[in-house]
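hey
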């Protein structure tokens, strides 16, 4: 029973929030005349001492005391005597843990936020160096149309921006205090829930005591935002892994963020990127774990809910590492722009530009232009040349409306420069977006 019941091995991570919650609670109890000023002072002093002890030596893991709340309360009793027993007036561990955990998740978001901003700065910084670096853009991992590396990196800036807004939404939604909901029904003591909410920097108290102690939406909101963010990191990691492979050769990862092989001396393995990709699965697993814990629980508190913390802690640790690793990889990678350009030029990636030209200059319907261009690509393939290396006579044999004007468009730079629609890959467009991004994330 002791082993299955105890949560102290993991919920000791809540100790700071637990002490902050208790201090806010006891200050309010004194304010309301529910405990004497002298007892409140003794309790607050004792809690400060305990915080110092935890800081210096860690939280003692006494399984018999079950959880962080009981471990701290029992230490308080040892330090100040019977007055310690007054701290838990008008409170239950149910509203206590709900408060502590909200505070913890709120702090977690406040740590993720600047880390994601740093990743965005890394992406925008590298994008700015590569607004004109042409690379193949892919669909189905097949060379599709040329894009720029700057444009590609800025795609991840947008994703991380949405992640930040999801975390910010979650923070706003969770920022209400459950403290004072007591076990489930509220309390007959004349407490001031607005005061404790304000003391803990919540926007106000929650409005239904049953909901307050049974709600773990805030933890799930965090895990869902973390999962979405991890999926983005995983896609970027996957691209780095593919790009770093020899057949691609688009990037070489720094020594710092790769490892050698113990047997093959030529290897530089993208371990960090692979672990970011791997961790995303575990983070999604944490989100599913808590979803399954909560599904079907009747109101209000059930001990199942003690299992809410390990998945959140695990996801938070993995996400923090993943963001830091991706930031380091983005900052330190060497992009092989010559190789990117060579592949962009070799994959007939400007075929769409020829089809578009036939529509614009020769007035063909797009479907017919598409068909003709297919024949041109086939010819280039047979001859083993690039599109802009085909002889004009051969092109005109396919369709006499083709003139040598089209050749200027068949180069990758012209192709990229022409895509000036809002959000397009043209360097002019990408530079515009980078300028907006720099202003938005304080890069001056
Ligand atoms: N350790 C418990 C948890 O994390 C604290 C709440 C216990 N409440 C109770 N009524 N047993 O959920």
């Amino acid at each position: 029973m002791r082993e299955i019941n105890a949560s102290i091995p993991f919920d000791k991570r809540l100790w700071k929030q637990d002490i902050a919650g208790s201090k806010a609670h006891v200050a309010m109890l004194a304010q309301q005349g529910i405990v004497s000023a002298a007892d409140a002072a003794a309790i607050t002093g004792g809690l400060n001492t305990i915080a110092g002890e935890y800081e210096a030596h860690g939280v003692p893991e006494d399984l018999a005391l079950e959880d962080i709340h009981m471990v701290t309360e029992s230490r308080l009793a040892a330090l100040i005597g019977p007055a310690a027993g007054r701290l838990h007036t008008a409170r239950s561990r149910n509203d206590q843990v709900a408060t502590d955990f909200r505070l913890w998740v709120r702090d977690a978001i406040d740590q993720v936020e600047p880390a994601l901003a740093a990743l965005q700065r890394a992406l925008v910084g590298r994008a700015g160096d590569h607004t004109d670096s042409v690379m193949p853009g892919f669909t189905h991992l097949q060379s599709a149309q040329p894009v720029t590396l700057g444009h590609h990196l800025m795609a991840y800036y947008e994703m991380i921006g949405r992640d930040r807004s999801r975390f910010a939404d979650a923070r706003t939604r969770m920022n209400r205090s459950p403290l004072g909901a007591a076990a489930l029904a509220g309390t007959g003591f004349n407490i001031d829930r607005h005061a404790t909410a304000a003391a803990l920097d919540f926007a106000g108290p929650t409005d239904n005591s049953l909901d307050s102690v049974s709600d773990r939406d805030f933890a799930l909101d965090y895990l869902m935002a973390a999962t979405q963010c991890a999926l983005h990191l995983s896609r970027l990691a996957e691209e780095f892994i593919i790009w770093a492979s020899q057949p691609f050769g688009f990037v070489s990862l720094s020594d710092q963020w790769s490892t050698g092989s113990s047997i093959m001396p030529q290897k530089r393995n993208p371990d960090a990127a692979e672990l970011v990709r791997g961790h995303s699965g575990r983070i999604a697993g944490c989100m599913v774990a808590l979803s399954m814990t909560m599904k079907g629980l009747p109101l209000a508190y059930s001990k199942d809910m003690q299992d809410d913390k390990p998945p959140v802690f695990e996801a938070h640790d993995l996400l923090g590492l993943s963001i830091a690793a991706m930031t380091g990889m983005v900052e330190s990678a060497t992009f092989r722009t010559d190789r990117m350009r060579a592949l962009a030029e070799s994959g007939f990636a400007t075929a769409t530009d020829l089809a578009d030209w036939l529509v614009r200059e020769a007035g063909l319907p797009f479907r017919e232009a598409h068909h003709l261009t297919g024949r041109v690509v086939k010819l280039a393939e047979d001859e083993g040349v690039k599109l802009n290396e085909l002889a004009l006579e051969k092109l005109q044999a396919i369709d006499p409306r083709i003139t040598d004007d089209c050749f200027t468009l068949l180069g990758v730079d012209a192709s990229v420069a022409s895509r000036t629609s809002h959000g397009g890959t043209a360097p002019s467009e990408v530079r515009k977006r980078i300028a907006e991004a720099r202003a938005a994330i304080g890069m001056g």
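The chain is about 65% helix and 5% strand. Residues 93-129 form the longest helix (37 residues).
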